[in-house]
Amino acid sequence: MNVNHVSSKPRIVIIGGGFAGINLGRSLSGHNVEVIMLDKHNYHTFQPLLYQVAIGAIEADAVGYPIRRIFAGQENFTFHLAEVQKISPESNTVNTNVGDFTYDYLVIATGSNTNYFGNKEMEHFTMPMKNIPEALNWRSLMVQNLEKALLTSDPIERAALLTFVVVGGGPTGVEMSGALAEMRLHMLTKDYPTFKPDDMKVYLVEGKPELIAAMSERASIKAKQFLIDMGVVIYTGVHVQSYNGEDLKIDNGVELKARSVFWAAGVKGEVPDGLPQEVVVRGARIQTDEINRVKGFNNIFAIGDVSAIVNTDTPNGHPGVAPVAIQQGSHLGKNLIRIIKGEAPVPFEYRDKGTLATVGRNKAVADLGKLRFQGFFAWLLWLFVHVMTLAGFSNKLIVFFSWIINYFTRNTDNRMILHNFDTETMKTDPIAK
Ligand SMILES: Cc1cc2nc3c(=O)[nH]c(=O)nc-3n(C[C@H](O)[C@H](O)[C@H](O)COP(=O)(O)OP(=O)(O)OC[C@H]3O[C@@H](n4cnc5c(N)ncnc54)[C@H](O)[C@@H]3O)c2cc1C
Fold it and tell me: Which ligand 1 atom is at minimum distance from the Cα of 304?
């Protein structure tokens, strides 16, 4: 298939229907342009709540939303389910698995992927979580290991099956280890009455000296204290040396036997092929100028996690968080219209409204400018912000009511193994009928 121009309107092709792409697409509504969005998934993923899917707190569909539904009624918008294989700037074409798309303006909003820093062993044996299938893989593995632990008569094997290690103490690692600690405290003995909470172990391993280093010192210390109070064993300032699916070695000499290791230690930009290597900077992000235009190109832009505005204020680009992607998407939409009209574009300025991270029930940390608080009110704010940012009214309701039920029952309802996770191949198998 070849999708060449049929209308005389300028054509803007957006690769990626994440936070950046969606907000860009919306901001182009009603303008005299043709918008084509390409994504390898037909849904938008709300990544901040993936860990809740992974631990069974909410259902998987609640963190996804069909891209076609988001843009229903936007007349200048078309969506195609397509995996981009390459960009060909010399012919203004995007090459995908379903055909080629020509563009006048191209916006790369492909987000980021898990970074194993070249360690193939970690890549094979640890569990990543950047999308819904990966969150469901973790859920399957976790529940399968609990089931196996119940059956084995070997105490060493049982302990390994009940040992959960989270690598990476950023917001995702902290949220995941907190959620596992809650499972240990509240769910384990209800679903598996022969186990005691102490049978399950949760470890958090972080390379930096402190957890959630991007937040204030106070938030970092409080998050660590919350986790310790919940029984999580934390190692900071150390690195995992090796993991072969059974034995995990840390460079402080600690060796653990664990069957479930979750990798939240890094991300890298998901850069499509076809751009020159010199535009790809630290963290595999595409370097852009202040209007998100890719260095050396007139009509190619990059926004969100995959991009980095590199200047003296932001030498490594803006943080890879949803508000940056949302604001860059909306801002670029306005700039593209200005450029098309022959007007001067306006540089992007990030309005940082603050950072929130939750550790568990009634426990979160909040840095909102100079206002820093922790505990119940931070947790309520975290709940509110996440429900309000979720795409789709039905998803907001489903998540809100799931949390109310979870809060009062001190349990979660979504621990079904829908697909077996095969620990030999580290892939899912269809479950036996
Ligand atoms: C587990 C987790 C927890 C997080 N928690 C928080 C949080 O609490 N707060 C916060 O602010 N941020 C959080 N983030 C980060 C936040 O989700 C990202 O910053 C944000 O999603 C970036 O938006 P984006 O549009 O750049 O990319 P994404 O949202 O990743 O979207 C990229 C899109 O591009 C598509 N795509 C990629 N490659 C191709 C291709 N070759 N062809 C076609 N389509 C392609 C993908 O399918 C996807 O839909 C979290 C991220 C993760 C993974």
Answer: 26
At 212-253, the pLDDT tens digits run 999 999 999 999 999 999 999 999 999 999 999 999 999 999
**Nearest 5°: phi and psi at 34?**
-100, 125
Rounded CA gap, 48 and 383, in Å?
11
Encoded tokens for 110 = 């492909």
The amino acid sitting at 245 is: G
286 neighbors 280 (Cβ within 8 angstroms): yes
Query: Where would I find the beta strands (DSSP E) of 143-253?
Result: 163-167, 201-206, 233-236, 240-243, 247-250
Q: Which helix (H) or strand (E) holds 222?
A: helix 217-229
Helix (H) or strand (E) segment spanning residue 409: helix 393-409
23 lines ligand 1 (CB under 6 A): no
Whether the CB of 111 sits within 6 Å of ligand 1: yes
Q: Which amino acid is at 374?
A: Q
Q: Is 175 in the pocket of ligand 1 (CB under 6 A)?
A: no
- Of ligand 1's listed atoms, the one at least distance from the Cα of 131 is 53
The three-state secondary structure class of 171 is: helix
| Separation between Cα atoms, residue 302 and residue 332, nearest integer Å | 9
Q: Note if the pTM is more than 0.85.
A: yes
pLDDT tens-digit series, residues 14-44 = 999 999 999 999 999 999 999 999 999 999 9
Is residue 366 within 8 A of residue 219, CB to CB? The reply is yes
Q: Which residues of 140-178 are buried (b: 16+ CB within 10 A; e: fewer)?
A: bbbbbbbebbeeeeeeebbbbbbbbbbbbbbbbbbbbbb
Cβ-based neighbours of 45, under 8 Å, separated by 6 or more: 18, 63, 64, 131, 132
Helix 19-27 to helix 322-340 angle (10° resolution) is 30
The identity of residue 404, as a single letter, is I
CA of 24 to the centre of ligand 1 (A): 14
Task: Please state, in angstroms and rounded to a whole number, the distance separating the CA atoms of residues 89 and 405.
Answer: 52
Give the CA distances from residue 187 to residues 136, 360, 413, in Å, rounded to whole numbers and listed in that order.
18, 14, 10
Q: Tell me the Cα Rg of the chain.
A: 22
